[in-house]
Amino acid sequence: MRAMWNDQVIAESDDTVVVEGNHYFPADAVDAAVLRPSETHSHCPWKGDASYYSLEVDGLVNADAAWYYPTPSEAAAEIKDRVAFWKGVTVSE
Hints:
The chain is built from no helices and 9 strands.
């Protein structure tokens, strides 16, 4: 699978985990150079607390377009150390 935004590959891996229709990429498959820390957090009743990254590619910023669960619940353990995308990020084979 490949995640793209602003005509740039931001993540690529054959090892994604699909949860609720979202592909979670291994953290080491994501281009760390495009990630910017965000202060945004959210809570999922069954996965736990999510943290976010903004993406920056060629000077353009996509705020809070990536998320991850630093310490997911036991029910969501399969997405530990994985990152998912939204907000215009295209995920395809």
